[in-house]
């Protein structure tokens, strides 16, 4: 193509027009970036994206949330807090973050109990929570506690060798009790031998596998609690009900003889046949959307009493078909024997009981004009043929922890918190075998340098031959 003066001028104009258009597009993109934002998280396990649990908690917060970070003017610290809280504010537009230098407001810092540089104060509906570490787990747990409308108490029965919600022994429930506290629930204990009354502000009473027999008076107190509409979680570990047979009769539940054994657990590398596996769940509020397998060591099989119609009863947890109730010793080779009264699986190891309680009408002097009529409520009870699944030794197996939290949330009438799991930190450790480590070391220290040097020498030699 022959270039003359006219063609040269046209090319210059085209280049100028292209440059102007390109700069215009860049300027427009820069302006749009100040108005809109888009982020993509391509990290392993989406470490920089809020989990599904955190998103569900944010969706429950209908009013504005205010976060105040008491952090000194240290860029790295403030950037870290801003990045973490920003993940929440992008989802919830009325969640705001403000920074305060604690050195400038010492009186306010003392009043709020600020003790750590970078501590957060999260406020919602006039309530506040202090968070000393700005990570997703602590912030989401604080938001979940603030989302609860009132202080709710989970009371554990003690005085008969029950599993303790505060102790650290393998058979105790200390880790589960800690998790309940992190979710905003108040955990306490009551000894009916010392204080012959279940607290009036108890939302759920927990009977966690007593080892000694309860006194008849204590059983009567529990029976009256149930009769008045109290919510109850009863964890059984033995067909000896430790004096609670009248309670079982009141609830219409009975324990089958023998220990549940499950041959299916061998497929998962579990040699102990007394570990029962639950892999499928019925359509119940506790297990809605719950798909993680749960493990129950030394579980008991339960059955309903046909002539009890006081409660609506529903089997909540069922073992697999290859299970049965073994009435003989668990040693050597065992097999199902119907002649000994053993029951073939699937077996029920947990029941959910409900009944509707009519609201009591107000007394004559308490009636108010225009006041809403009292509403009926639902009483909820869970009977589980195993207490080990929530113990410190087995809480981390499968979905045991999340199932236990779902149970407590359902019993305490907090259905909106069901299936918000406790988030666990992703495993970022890379485990290599000695052979793999040797291959990687040999490759990077010897093979790769030799290959680079060899390719350089080859290129140099070929150029010399030209």
Walk me through the topology.
Blueprint: H1 5-35, H2 52-60, E1 65-70, H3 75-91, E2 95-100, H4 106-112, E3 119-124, E4 127-131, H5 136-147, E5 152-157, H6 174-182, E6 185-190, E7 202-208, H7 216-227, E8 231-235, H8 245-251, E9 253-255, E10 259-262, E11 275-278, E12 294-297, E13 302-304, E14 312-318, E15 323-326, E16 348-357, E17 377-384, H9 400-411, H10 434-465
Parallel strand pairs: 1-2, 5-6, 5-7, 7-8, 8-17
Antiparallel strand pairs: 1-3, 3-4, 9-13, 10-15, 11-12, 14-16, 16-17
Helix pairs in contact: 2-5
- Describe the sheet with the most strands: 7 strands, mixed
Question: Number of helical runs?
Answer: 10
Q: Would you report the number of β strands? A: 17
Arrangement of strands in the largest sheet: 6-5-7-8-17-16-14
Task: Summarize the structure in words.
With 466 residues, the protein is of the alpha/beta class. The protein folds into two domains: 44-145, Glutaredoxin (3-Layer(aba) Sandwich), CATH 3.40.30; 148-358 and 377-417, Rossmann fold. Helices cover 32% and strands 20% of the residues. It is built from ten helices and 17 strands. The strands form five sheets. It has a seven-stranded mixed sheet, covered by helices on one side. A four-stranded mixed sheet has the order 2-1-3-4, covered by helices on one side. The longest helix is centred in the last third of the chain and has 32 residues, at 434-465. The radius of gyration is 32 Å and the shape is extended. The model has no long low-confidence stretch (mean pLDDT 86).
